[in-house]
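[SOLVED] Predicted holo structure with zinc ion

Edit: marking solved, answer below. Original request kept for reference. I posted the sequence and ligand SMILES and asked for the 3D complex as C-alpha coordinates.
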Amino acid sequence: MENFVVSARKYRPQHFSTVVGQAHITTTLKNAILQNHLAHAFLFCGPRGVGKTTCARILAKTINCEKLGKDGEACDKCNSCQSFNKGASFNIHELDAASNNSVDDIRELIEQVRFAPQAGKYKIYIIDEVHMLSASAFNAFLKTLEEPPAHAIFILATTEKHKILPTILSRCQIFDFKRITPADIVAYLEEIVSKEKITAENAAMQLIAQKSDGCMRDALSILDKIVSFTNGQLTYASTLEHLNVLDEEYFFQFFELLQKEDLPGVLSLYDEIDQKGFEGDTVLNHFSSFFRNMLVSKDARSIALLQVVEAFTEKYNATANQVSIPYIIGALNILNEAEIGFKQARNKKLHVEFHLIRLTYLQQAVNIQPDETAGKKKRLDELKPIAFKHIGFAVQKEKKVERQQKSPSIEGSPTAKLEIDNAIIQDKLPVQLPNEPVAEKPKEAGALKKIREQILHRKLEPLASKTLTQDMLNEAWNMYLSRLLDQNQVTSHHNLKTAITTVINEVQFDVFVGSRIQQQFIESEKTHLLIHIQEYFNNPKIQLKISLDPAAEKEPVQTEQTLSQRDQYLRMIERYPLVKEMRDQLNLDLDY
Ligand SMILES: [Zn+2]
Protein backbone atom coordinates (compact mmCIF):
# COMPACT_ATOMS: atom_id res chain seq x y z
CA MET A 1 0.00 0.00 0.00
CA GLU A 2 2.95 2.35 0.43
CA ASN A 3 3.09 3.19 -3.22
CA PHE A 4 -0.55 4.04 -3.54
CA VAL A 5 -0.80 6.70 -6.21
CA VAL A 6 -3.56 9.22 -6.38
CA SER A 7 -6.21 7.35 -8.29
CA ALA A 8 -7.44 10.34 -10.18
CA ARG A 9 -4.08 10.68 -11.90
CA LYS A 10 -3.19 7.00 -12.15
CA TYR A 11 -6.54 6.05 -13.60
CA ARG A 12 -7.05 9.07 -15.77
CA PRO A 13 -8.55 7.59 -18.95
CA GLN A 14 -6.12 7.42 -21.87
CA HIS A 15 -8.67 6.51 -24.52
CA PHE A 16 -12.13 7.64 -25.45
CA SER A 17 -13.45 4.18 -24.61
CA THR A 18 -12.38 4.46 -20.99
CA VAL A 19 -14.00 7.83 -20.34
CA VAL A 20 -16.84 7.23 -17.92
CA GLY A 21 -20.38 8.43 -18.52
CA GLN A 22 -19.76 10.70 -21.54
CA ALA A 23 -20.34 8.26 -24.38
CA HIS A 24 -22.42 10.83 -26.28
CA ILE A 25 -19.35 13.02 -26.54
CA THR A 26 -16.61 10.46 -27.10
CA THR A 27 -18.56 8.78 -29.91
CA THR A 28 -19.08 12.07 -31.72
CA LEU A 29 -15.41 13.00 -31.35
CA LYS A 30 -14.22 9.62 -32.64
CA ASN A 31 -16.50 9.86 -35.67
CA ALA A 32 -15.29 13.39 -36.40
CA ILE A 33 -11.67 12.20 -36.27
CA LEU A 34 -12.33 9.19 -38.50
CA GLN A 35 -14.19 11.28 -41.05
CA ASN A 36 -11.66 14.09 -40.83
CA HIS A 37 -14.37 16.60 -40.06
CA LEU A 38 -12.69 18.15 -37.10
CA ALA A 39 -13.75 21.61 -35.98
CA HIS A 40 -11.07 24.14 -35.07
CA ALA A 41 -12.68 25.20 -31.86
CA PHE A 42 -14.55 23.21 -29.25
CA LEU A 43 -16.35 24.30 -26.17
CA PHE A 44 -16.58 21.68 -23.44
CA CYS A 45 -19.18 22.62 -20.85
CA GLY A 46 -20.29 20.79 -17.76
CA PRO A 47 -19.81 20.40 -14.02
CA ARG A 48 -16.37 20.01 -12.53
CA GLY A 49 -14.66 16.66 -12.45
CA VAL A 50 -16.68 14.97 -15.17
CA GLY A 51 -13.90 14.55 -17.74
CA LYS A 52 -13.68 17.76 -19.76
CA THR A 53 -9.91 18.17 -19.55
CA THR A 54 -9.41 14.41 -19.86
CA CYS A 55 -11.39 14.36 -23.11
CA ALA A 56 -9.45 17.36 -24.40
CA ARG A 57 -6.17 15.55 -23.75
CA ILE A 58 -7.37 12.34 -25.35
CA LEU A 59 -8.52 14.32 -28.36
CA ALA A 60 -5.10 15.98 -28.61
CA LYS A 61 -3.33 12.65 -28.42
CA THR A 62 -5.66 10.90 -30.86
CA ILE A 63 -5.51 13.47 -33.65
CA ASN A 64 -1.72 13.47 -33.50
CA CYS A 65 -1.39 9.67 -33.46
CA GLU A 66 0.64 8.35 -36.34
CA LYS A 67 -1.16 5.02 -36.47
CA LEU A 68 -4.76 5.85 -35.69
CA GLY A 69 -6.85 2.76 -35.02
CA LYS A 70 -9.90 1.96 -37.10
CA ASP A 71 -12.07 2.54 -34.06
CA GLY A 72 -10.82 6.11 -33.84
CA GLU A 73 -8.58 5.49 -30.81
CA ALA A 74 -4.88 6.37 -30.44
CA CYS A 75 -2.38 3.53 -30.85
CA ASP A 76 -0.42 4.35 -27.70
CA LYS A 77 2.74 3.03 -29.41
CA CYS A 78 3.90 5.67 -31.88
CA ASN A 79 6.30 8.41 -30.86
CA SER A 80 3.60 11.00 -30.58
CA CYS A 81 1.44 8.83 -28.34
CA GLN A 82 4.43 7.93 -26.18
CA SER A 83 5.38 11.54 -25.63
CA PHE A 84 1.74 12.39 -24.84
CA ASN A 85 1.59 9.56 -22.34
CA LYS A 86 4.76 10.82 -20.67
CA GLY A 87 3.34 14.30 -20.65
CA ALA A 88 6.26 15.48 -22.78
CA SER A 89 4.48 16.41 -26.01
CA PHE A 90 5.07 19.88 -27.44
CA ASN A 91 1.80 19.77 -29.28
CA ILE A 92 -0.37 20.43 -26.33
CA HIS A 93 -0.67 23.74 -24.48
CA GLU A 94 -2.83 24.23 -21.46
CA LEU A 95 -3.82 27.59 -20.11
CA ASP A 96 -5.74 27.95 -16.91
CA ALA A 97 -7.81 31.05 -17.48
CA ALA A 98 -8.69 31.18 -13.80
CA SER A 99 -5.17 32.35 -12.99
CA ASN A 100 -3.98 33.62 -16.40
CA ASN A 101 -6.80 35.76 -17.61
CA SER A 102 -5.08 38.95 -18.73
CA VAL A 103 -4.66 40.25 -22.28
CA ASP A 104 -0.91 39.54 -22.05
CA ASP A 105 -1.51 35.87 -21.28
CA ILE A 106 -3.73 35.58 -24.31
CA ARG A 107 -1.26 37.50 -26.53
CA GLU A 108 1.46 35.09 -25.54
CA LEU A 109 -0.73 32.20 -26.52
CA ILE A 110 -1.65 33.82 -29.84
CA GLU A 111 2.07 34.27 -30.58
CA GLN A 112 2.64 30.55 -30.20
CA VAL A 113 -0.35 29.67 -32.36
CA ARG A 114 1.41 31.10 -35.42
CA PHE A 115 4.14 28.41 -35.38
CA ALA A 116 3.41 25.08 -36.98
CA PRO A 117 4.16 21.95 -34.91
CA GLN A 118 7.64 20.45 -35.36
CA ALA A 119 6.26 16.96 -35.17
CA GLY A 120 2.70 15.72 -35.65
CA LYS A 121 -0.21 17.39 -37.38
CA TYR A 122 -1.91 19.55 -34.81
CA LYS A 123 -1.17 21.85 -31.95
CA ILE A 124 -3.90 21.79 -29.35
CA TYR A 125 -4.61 24.72 -27.08
CA ILE A 126 -6.70 23.94 -24.03
CA ILE A 127 -8.07 26.95 -22.20
CA ASP A 128 -9.58 25.84 -18.93
CA GLU A 129 -12.19 27.91 -17.08
CA VAL A 130 -12.45 30.08 -20.17
CA HIS A 131 -15.29 32.13 -18.64
CA MET A 132 -12.69 33.69 -16.35
CA LEU A 133 -10.96 35.53 -19.21
CA SER A 134 -11.23 39.29 -18.95
CA ALA A 135 -13.32 41.09 -21.54
CA SER A 136 -10.26 42.51 -23.27
CA ALA A 137 -8.59 39.10 -23.28
CA PHE A 138 -11.70 37.69 -24.89
CA ASN A 139 -11.58 40.34 -27.58
CA ALA A 140 -7.90 39.74 -28.25
CA PHE A 141 -8.62 36.05 -28.59
CA LEU A 142 -11.63 36.46 -30.85
CA LYS A 143 -9.69 37.19 -34.03
CA THR A 144 -7.50 34.13 -33.70
CA LEU A 145 -10.56 32.05 -33.04
CA GLU A 146 -12.17 33.43 -36.18
CA GLU A 147 -9.29 32.53 -38.51
CA PRO A 148 -7.13 29.90 -36.85
CA PRO A 149 -4.17 28.40 -38.70
CA ALA A 150 -4.88 24.93 -40.13
CA HIS A 151 -2.65 23.25 -37.54
CA ALA A 152 -4.32 24.83 -34.48
CA ILE A 153 -7.22 23.41 -32.53
CA PHE A 154 -8.72 25.22 -29.55
CA ILE A 155 -10.52 23.44 -26.79
CA LEU A 156 -12.25 25.79 -24.40
CA ALA A 157 -13.54 24.27 -21.19
CA THR A 158 -15.93 25.87 -18.74
CA THR A 159 -18.24 25.05 -15.88
CA GLU A 160 -20.28 28.16 -16.60
CA LYS A 161 -21.45 28.19 -20.17
CA HIS A 162 -23.86 31.11 -19.60
CA LYS A 163 -20.89 33.39 -18.96
CA ILE A 164 -19.40 32.80 -22.39
CA LEU A 165 -19.93 35.58 -24.92
CA PRO A 166 -22.25 34.71 -27.81
CA THR A 167 -19.49 35.65 -30.26
CA ILE A 168 -17.36 32.84 -28.80
CA LEU A 169 -20.22 30.37 -28.58
CA SER A 170 -21.06 30.84 -32.24
CA ARG A 171 -17.51 29.95 -33.30
CA CYS A 172 -17.23 26.74 -31.32
CA GLN A 173 -18.60 23.24 -31.56
CA ILE A 174 -20.26 22.82 -28.21
CA PHE A 175 -20.26 19.65 -26.13
CA ASP A 176 -22.26 19.41 -22.94
CA PHE A 177 -20.75 17.02 -20.43
CA LYS A 178 -23.12 15.23 -18.09
CA ARG A 179 -22.89 14.68 -14.40
CA ILE A 180 -21.69 11.11 -13.94
CA THR A 181 -24.36 8.81 -12.50
CA PRO A 182 -23.69 7.10 -9.16
CA ALA A 183 -23.96 3.73 -10.90
CA ASP A 184 -21.20 4.70 -13.36
CA ILE A 185 -19.02 5.96 -10.55
CA VAL A 186 -19.53 2.79 -8.52
CA ALA A 187 -18.66 0.63 -11.54
CA TYR A 188 -15.49 2.60 -12.11
CA LEU A 189 -14.49 2.47 -8.44
CA GLU A 190 -15.05 -1.28 -8.44
CA GLU A 191 -12.71 -1.58 -11.39
CA ILE A 192 -10.03 0.36 -9.56
CA VAL A 193 -10.33 -1.48 -6.25
CA SER A 194 -10.11 -4.83 -7.97
CA LYS A 195 -6.99 -3.69 -9.83
CA GLU A 196 -5.50 -2.32 -6.63
CA LYS A 197 -6.50 -5.46 -4.69
CA ILE A 198 -8.43 -3.48 -2.12
CA THR A 199 -11.23 -5.10 -0.15
CA ALA A 200 -14.23 -2.83 -0.42
CA GLU A 201 -17.87 -3.20 0.51
CA ASN A 202 -20.21 -2.24 -2.27
CA ALA A 203 -22.21 -0.04 0.13
CA ALA A 204 -19.04 1.92 0.88
CA MET A 205 -18.50 2.67 -2.78
CA GLN A 206 -22.12 3.68 -3.19
CA LEU A 207 -21.67 6.06 -0.34
CA ILE A 208 -18.61 7.55 -2.03
CA ALA A 209 -20.51 7.87 -5.30
CA GLN A 210 -23.34 9.70 -3.51
CA LYS A 211 -21.02 12.01 -1.70
CA SER A 212 -19.10 12.94 -4.85
CA ASP A 213 -22.29 14.21 -6.49
CA GLY A 214 -21.46 13.13 -10.05
CA CYS A 215 -17.87 14.33 -9.94
CA MET A 216 -15.48 11.50 -10.75
CA ARG A 217 -12.43 13.42 -9.61
CA ASP A 218 -13.96 13.83 -6.14
CA ALA A 219 -14.99 10.18 -6.03
CA LEU A 220 -11.43 9.09 -6.78
CA SER A 221 -9.85 11.39 -4.24
CA ILE A 222 -12.32 10.26 -1.57
CA LEU A 223 -11.44 6.69 -2.42
CA ASP A 224 -7.76 7.49 -2.07
CA LYS A 225 -8.23 9.07 1.33
CA ILE A 226 -10.34 6.29 2.75
CA VAL A 227 -8.05 3.61 1.42
CA SER A 228 -5.07 5.12 3.20
CA PHE A 229 -7.17 5.84 6.27
CA THR A 230 -8.52 2.29 6.58
CA ASN A 231 -5.40 0.53 5.33
CA GLY A 232 -7.16 -0.95 2.36
CA GLN A 233 -10.24 -2.25 4.20
CA LEU A 234 -13.11 -0.26 2.83
CA THR A 235 -16.19 -0.92 4.97
CA TYR A 236 -19.49 0.94 5.03
CA ALA A 237 -18.95 1.97 8.65
CA SER A 238 -15.44 3.29 8.12
CA THR A 239 -16.54 5.19 5.06
CA LEU A 240 -19.43 6.75 6.98
CA GLU A 241 -17.06 7.80 9.69
CA HIS A 242 -14.50 9.19 7.33
CA LEU A 243 -16.94 11.07 5.18
CA ASN A 244 -18.68 12.44 8.23
CA VAL A 245 -21.92 11.21 6.74
CA LEU A 246 -24.90 10.48 8.92
CA ASP A 247 -25.95 6.89 8.78
CA GLU A 248 -29.26 6.37 7.00
CA GLU A 249 -30.09 3.97 9.78
CA TYR A 250 -30.50 6.87 12.22
CA PHE A 251 -33.36 8.24 10.21
CA PHE A 252 -35.15 4.93 10.09
CA GLN A 253 -34.83 4.92 13.87
CA PHE A 254 -36.14 8.47 14.03
CA PHE A 255 -39.01 7.50 11.83
CA GLU A 256 -39.96 4.57 14.02
CA LEU A 257 -39.93 6.78 17.11
CA LEU A 258 -42.05 9.41 15.36
CA GLN A 259 -44.64 6.80 14.48
CA LYS A 260 -44.88 5.91 18.16
CA GLU A 261 -44.91 9.60 19.15
CA ASP A 262 -42.06 8.73 21.45
CA LEU A 263 -40.78 12.22 22.17
CA PRO A 264 -38.16 11.23 24.77
CA GLY A 265 -36.82 8.66 22.32
CA VAL A 266 -36.62 11.23 19.52
CA LEU A 267 -34.82 13.77 21.68
CA SER A 268 -32.36 11.19 23.03
CA LEU A 269 -31.56 9.97 19.55
CA TYR A 270 -30.92 13.52 18.42
CA ASP A 271 -28.70 14.04 21.42
CA GLU A 272 -26.71 10.94 20.48
CA ILE A 273 -26.17 12.31 16.96
CA ASP A 274 -25.30 15.71 18.39
CA GLN A 275 -22.70 14.11 20.66
CA LYS A 276 -21.01 12.66 17.59
CA GLY A 277 -20.38 16.16 16.40
CA PHE A 278 -22.90 16.42 13.59
CA GLU A 279 -24.23 19.92 13.06
CA GLY A 280 -27.95 20.50 13.44
CA ASP A 281 -28.40 21.64 9.85
CA THR A 282 -26.72 18.46 8.60
CA VAL A 283 -29.25 16.44 10.55
CA LEU A 284 -32.15 18.53 9.21
CA ASN A 285 -30.86 18.33 5.68
CA HIS A 286 -30.36 14.61 5.85
CA PHE A 287 -33.75 14.14 7.42
CA SER A 288 -35.29 16.06 4.52
CA SER A 289 -33.53 13.76 2.07
CA PHE A 290 -34.88 10.83 4.03
CA PHE A 291 -38.47 12.00 3.60
CA ARG A 292 -37.78 12.94 0.00
CA ASN A 293 -36.56 9.39 -0.64
CA MET A 294 -39.61 8.08 1.14
CA LEU A 295 -41.81 10.10 -1.20
CA VAL A 296 -40.16 8.85 -4.37
CA SER A 297 -40.35 5.28 -3.04
CA LYS A 298 -44.11 5.49 -2.90
CA ASP A 299 -44.56 5.28 -6.63
CA ALA A 300 -42.98 2.83 -9.07
CA ARG A 301 -42.55 5.65 -11.60
CA SER A 302 -40.41 7.78 -9.32
CA ILE A 303 -38.49 5.01 -7.63
CA ALA A 304 -35.61 5.46 -10.07
CA LEU A 305 -34.97 8.80 -8.35
CA LEU A 306 -34.15 7.08 -5.09
CA GLN A 307 -30.60 8.11 -4.24
CA VAL A 308 -29.53 5.73 -1.55
CA VAL A 309 -27.10 2.97 -0.95
CA GLU A 310 -28.64 -0.12 -2.51
CA ALA A 311 -28.88 -1.90 0.79
CA PHE A 312 -31.50 0.63 1.89
CA THR A 313 -33.71 0.55 -1.20
CA GLU A 314 -35.75 -2.32 0.12
CA LYS A 315 -36.08 -0.68 3.50
CA TYR A 316 -37.31 2.55 1.97
CA ASN A 317 -39.93 0.70 -0.03
CA ALA A 318 -41.21 -1.09 3.04
CA THR A 319 -41.27 2.03 5.22
CA ALA A 320 -42.86 4.30 2.64
CA ASN A 321 -45.93 2.10 2.59
CA GLN A 322 -46.55 2.83 6.26
CA VAL A 323 -47.22 6.51 5.77
CA SER A 324 -49.46 8.73 3.69
CA ILE A 325 -48.25 11.32 1.21
CA PRO A 326 -49.79 14.21 3.23
CA TYR A 327 -47.75 13.06 6.20
CA ILE A 328 -44.52 13.06 4.19
CA ILE A 329 -45.25 16.48 2.73
CA GLY A 330 -46.08 17.79 6.19
CA ALA A 331 -42.76 16.47 7.46
CA LEU A 332 -40.89 18.02 4.53
CA ASN A 333 -42.56 21.35 5.27
CA ILE A 334 -41.54 21.29 8.90
CA LEU A 335 -37.96 20.34 8.02
CA ASN A 336 -37.81 23.02 5.36
CA GLU A 337 -38.93 25.66 7.85
CA ALA A 338 -36.38 24.34 10.30
CA GLU A 339 -33.59 24.63 7.74
CA ILE A 340 -34.59 28.14 6.75
CA GLY A 341 -34.69 29.29 10.36
CA PHE A 342 -31.54 27.48 11.42
CA LYS A 343 -29.11 30.30 10.65
CA GLN A 344 -31.03 32.83 12.68
CA ALA A 345 -31.62 30.53 15.63
CA ARG A 346 -29.53 31.49 18.66
CA ASN A 347 -29.77 28.11 20.31
CA LYS A 348 -29.22 25.72 17.41
CA LYS A 349 -29.84 22.56 19.35
CA LEU A 350 -33.09 23.87 20.78
CA HIS A 351 -34.15 24.97 17.32
CA VAL A 352 -33.67 21.46 15.95
CA GLU A 353 -35.35 19.93 18.98
CA PHE A 354 -38.33 22.21 18.59
CA HIS A 355 -38.89 21.04 15.05
CA LEU A 356 -38.38 17.43 16.04
CA ILE A 357 -41.16 17.92 18.57
CA ARG A 358 -43.38 19.24 15.80
CA LEU A 359 -42.51 16.20 13.71
CA THR A 360 -43.32 13.88 16.60
CA TYR A 361 -46.91 15.09 16.74
CA LEU A 362 -47.31 15.59 13.03
CA GLN A 363 -49.45 12.48 12.63
CA GLN A 364 -52.10 14.02 14.86
CA ALA A 365 -52.18 17.18 12.78
CA VAL A 366 -52.53 15.15 9.58
CA ASN A 367 -55.38 13.16 11.14
CA ILE A 368 -57.23 16.27 12.27
CA GLN A 369 -57.12 18.06 8.95
CA PRO A 370 -60.02 16.35 7.10
CA ASP A 371 -62.36 17.13 10.02
CA GLU A 372 -61.56 20.81 10.00
CA THR A 373 -65.08 21.94 9.09
CA ALA A 374 -66.60 19.78 11.79
CA GLY A 375 -64.23 21.35 14.30
CA LYS A 376 -65.28 24.83 13.24
CA LYS A 377 -68.91 23.98 13.64
CA LYS A 378 -68.33 22.66 17.11
CA ARG A 379 -66.50 25.80 18.10
CA LEU A 380 -69.33 27.92 16.78
CA ASP A 381 -71.86 25.87 18.71
CA GLU A 382 -69.92 26.46 21.86
CA LEU A 383 -70.11 30.23 21.47
CA LYS A 384 -72.32 31.89 24.02
CA PRO A 385 -73.39 35.51 24.27
CA ILE A 386 -71.23 37.54 26.58
CA ALA A 387 -72.90 38.41 29.86
CA PHE A 388 -73.01 42.10 30.77
CA LYS A 389 -74.18 44.12 33.69
CA HIS A 390 -75.82 47.47 33.91
CA ILE A 391 -73.18 50.16 34.29
CA GLY A 392 -75.22 53.33 33.68
CA PHE A 393 -74.95 54.70 37.20
CA ALA A 394 -71.21 54.25 37.39
CA VAL A 395 -70.74 56.01 34.07
CA GLN A 396 -72.85 58.90 35.25
CA LYS A 397 -70.86 59.29 38.41
CA GLU A 398 -67.48 59.21 36.72
CA LYS A 399 -68.54 61.74 34.16
CA LYS A 400 -69.80 64.13 36.77
CA VAL A 401 -66.59 64.03 38.77
CA GLU A 402 -64.52 64.40 35.66
CA ARG A 403 -66.55 67.30 34.43
CA GLN A 404 -66.27 69.17 37.70
CA GLN A 405 -62.58 68.49 38.03
CA LYS A 406 -61.92 69.85 34.59
CA SER A 407 -64.19 72.84 34.84
CA PRO A 408 -61.87 75.89 34.86
CA SER A 409 -64.33 77.93 36.96
CA ILE A 410 -63.69 75.84 40.03
CA GLU A 411 -60.20 74.64 39.27
CA GLY A 412 -57.84 75.52 42.07
CA SER A 413 -60.55 77.22 44.12
CA PRO A 414 -60.86 76.21 47.78
CA THR A 415 -64.34 74.90 47.24
CA ALA A 416 -63.28 72.59 44.45
CA LYS A 417 -62.53 69.67 46.69
CA LEU A 418 -65.74 70.13 48.58
CA GLU A 419 -67.77 70.26 45.40
CA ILE A 420 -66.21 67.12 44.07
CA ASP A 421 -66.90 65.36 47.35
CA ASN A 422 -70.39 66.66 47.21
CA ALA A 423 -70.80 65.27 43.72
CA ILE A 424 -69.66 61.88 44.86
CA ILE A 425 -71.98 61.96 47.83
CA GLN A 426 -74.84 63.01 45.61
CA ASP A 427 -74.14 60.13 43.30
CA LYS A 428 -74.17 57.74 46.15
CA LEU A 429 -77.72 58.75 46.97
CA PRO A 430 -80.31 56.61 45.29
CA VAL A 431 -82.38 59.59 44.14
CA GLN A 432 -81.23 62.82 42.59
CA LEU A 433 -81.48 65.92 44.66
CA PRO A 434 -84.49 67.96 43.57
CA ASN A 435 -82.58 71.22 43.35
CA GLU A 436 -80.30 69.97 40.66
CA PRO A 437 -81.35 71.54 37.39
CA VAL A 438 -82.20 69.05 34.66
CA ALA A 439 -80.23 70.90 32.03
CA GLU A 440 -77.04 70.32 33.96
CA LYS A 441 -77.47 66.59 33.93
CA PRO A 442 -74.31 65.16 32.54
CA LYS A 443 -74.80 63.82 29.09
CA GLU A 444 -74.42 60.17 28.45
CA ALA A 445 -72.90 58.92 25.29
CA GLY A 446 -75.57 59.58 22.63
CA ALA A 447 -76.14 55.98 21.62
CA LEU A 448 -76.47 54.79 25.19
CA LYS A 449 -78.94 57.54 25.97
CA LYS A 450 -81.06 56.71 22.96
CA ILE A 451 -81.24 53.06 23.88
CA ARG A 452 -82.18 53.96 27.42
CA GLU A 453 -84.88 56.28 26.20
CA GLN A 454 -86.22 53.71 23.83
CA ILE A 455 -86.49 51.12 26.57
CA LEU A 456 -88.18 53.56 28.93
CA HIS A 457 -90.50 54.66 26.20
CA ARG A 458 -91.51 51.12 25.32
CA LYS A 459 -92.52 50.37 28.87
CA LEU A 460 -94.59 53.51 29.23
CA GLU A 461 -96.61 53.15 26.03
CA PRO A 462 -100.13 51.77 26.21
CA LEU A 463 -100.64 48.56 24.35
CA ALA A 464 -103.34 49.56 21.84
CA SER A 465 -102.04 50.96 18.53
CA LYS A 466 -103.04 54.41 17.31
CA THR A 467 -104.16 55.13 13.80
CA LEU A 468 -101.64 56.89 11.61
CA THR A 469 -103.09 60.28 10.72
CA GLN A 470 -101.38 63.40 9.48
CA ASP A 471 -102.07 65.28 12.70
CA MET A 472 -100.74 62.60 14.92
CA LEU A 473 -97.76 62.09 12.66
CA ASN A 474 -96.97 65.79 12.96
CA GLU A 475 -97.20 65.48 16.72
CA ALA A 476 -94.90 62.47 16.79
CA TRP A 477 -92.57 64.22 14.37
CA ASN A 478 -92.39 67.33 16.55
CA MET A 479 -91.70 65.20 19.60
CA TYR A 480 -88.76 63.71 17.83
CA LEU A 481 -87.60 67.17 16.77
CA SER A 482 -87.65 68.50 20.30
CA ARG A 483 -85.79 65.48 21.49
CA LEU A 484 -83.11 66.19 18.88
CA LEU A 485 -82.87 69.71 20.21
CA ASP A 486 -82.51 68.38 23.73
CA GLN A 487 -79.66 66.29 22.48
CA ASN A 488 -78.14 69.29 20.78
CA GLN A 489 -78.35 67.58 17.41
CA VAL A 490 -78.89 70.82 15.61
CA THR A 491 -78.20 69.64 12.09
CA SER A 492 -80.48 66.65 12.34
CA HIS A 493 -83.14 68.85 13.85
CA HIS A 494 -82.86 71.32 11.01
CA ASN A 495 -82.95 68.64 8.37
CA LEU A 496 -85.99 66.94 9.80
CA LYS A 497 -87.77 70.18 10.47
CA THR A 498 -87.60 71.33 6.86
CA ALA A 499 -88.82 67.97 5.54
CA ILE A 500 -92.48 67.53 4.56
CA THR A 501 -94.36 64.47 5.75
CA THR A 502 -97.36 63.00 3.98
CA VAL A 503 -99.39 60.08 5.24
CA ILE A 504 -100.10 57.59 2.46
CA ASN A 505 -102.08 54.96 4.35
CA GLU A 506 -102.35 53.43 7.83
CA VAL A 507 -98.86 52.01 7.80
CA GLN A 508 -97.01 54.20 5.33
CA PHE A 509 -95.92 57.80 5.13
CA ASP A 510 -93.61 59.70 2.85
CA VAL A 511 -90.94 62.20 3.80
CA PHE A 512 -90.11 64.74 1.12
CA VAL A 513 -86.79 66.52 1.28
CA GLY A 514 -85.31 69.41 -0.62
CA SER A 515 -81.84 68.08 -1.40
CA ARG A 516 -79.85 64.91 -1.63
CA ILE A 517 -77.79 65.85 1.39
CA GLN A 518 -80.92 66.29 3.41
CA GLN A 519 -82.08 62.94 2.12
CA GLN A 520 -78.84 61.33 3.26
CA PHE A 521 -79.18 62.96 6.65
CA ILE A 522 -82.63 61.66 7.24
CA GLU A 523 -81.64 58.25 5.89
CA SER A 524 -78.95 58.09 8.56
CA GLU A 525 -81.49 59.11 11.18
CA LYS A 526 -84.16 56.79 9.77
CA THR A 527 -83.74 53.86 12.12
CA HIS A 528 -84.16 55.93 15.27
CA LEU A 529 -86.89 58.01 13.72
CA LEU A 530 -88.86 54.95 12.65
CA ILE A 531 -88.53 53.32 16.06
CA HIS A 532 -89.86 56.54 17.58
CA ILE A 533 -92.82 56.69 15.21
CA GLN A 534 -93.62 52.99 15.56
CA GLU A 535 -93.56 53.33 19.32
CA TYR A 536 -95.63 56.47 19.26
CA PHE A 537 -98.34 54.71 17.26
CA ASN A 538 -97.57 51.41 18.93
CA ASN A 539 -97.56 49.89 15.50
CA PRO A 540 -94.39 48.15 14.28
CA LYS A 541 -95.77 47.90 10.75
CA ILE A 542 -95.43 51.59 10.04
CA GLN A 543 -92.87 52.33 7.33
CA LEU A 544 -91.55 55.55 5.91
CA LYS A 545 -90.08 56.44 2.56
CA ILE A 546 -87.70 59.34 2.06
CA SER A 547 -87.89 60.89 -1.38
CA LEU A 548 -86.53 63.95 -3.01
CA ASP A 549 -89.11 66.67 -3.56
CA PRO A 550 -89.71 66.66 -7.35
CA ALA A 551 -89.40 70.44 -7.38
CA ALA A 552 -86.02 70.31 -5.67
CA GLU A 553 -84.60 67.67 -7.97
CA LYS A 554 -83.89 70.25 -10.61
CA GLU A 555 -81.54 72.04 -8.26
CA PRO A 556 -77.90 71.31 -8.80
CA VAL A 557 -76.80 68.47 -6.63
CA GLN A 558 -74.86 69.77 -3.70
CA THR A 559 -71.68 68.00 -2.87
CA GLU A 560 -70.18 67.53 0.53
CA GLN A 561 -67.32 69.87 -0.24
CA THR A 562 -69.68 72.83 -0.09
CA LEU A 563 -70.15 72.39 3.67
CA SER A 564 -68.71 75.15 5.76
CA GLN A 565 -66.28 74.24 8.50
CA ARG A 566 -69.00 74.79 11.04
CA ASP A 567 -71.33 72.46 9.19
CA GLN A 568 -68.54 69.94 8.96
CA TYR A 569 -68.14 70.11 12.70
CA LEU A 570 -71.85 69.74 13.24
CA ARG A 571 -71.92 66.73 10.99
CA MET A 572 -68.99 65.26 12.77
CA ILE A 573 -70.57 65.54 16.19
CA GLU A 574 -73.77 64.25 14.71
CA ARG A 575 -71.97 61.11 13.75
CA TYR A 576 -69.56 60.93 16.66
CA PRO A 577 -71.24 62.43 19.71
CA LEU A 578 -68.14 61.73 21.77
CA VAL A 579 -66.36 64.50 19.87
CA LYS A 580 -68.80 67.02 21.24
CA GLU A 581 -68.58 65.53 24.66
CA MET A 582 -64.83 65.85 24.54
CA ARG A 583 -65.14 69.42 23.42
CA ASP A 584 -67.56 70.21 26.22
CA GLN A 585 -65.52 68.54 28.88
CA LEU A 586 -62.26 70.12 27.81
CA ASN A 587 -64.01 73.44 27.26
CA LEU A 588 -62.50 73.83 23.86
CA ASP A 589 -63.29 76.75 21.59
CA LEU A 590 -63.48 75.92 17.96
CA ASP A 591 -62.17 78.01 15.11
CA TYR A 592 -64.79 77.74 12.41
ZN1 LIG B 1 -0.19 6.63 -31.74
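OP edit: The domain at 22-176 is CATH 3.40.50.300 (Rossmann fold). Thanks to everyone who chimed in.
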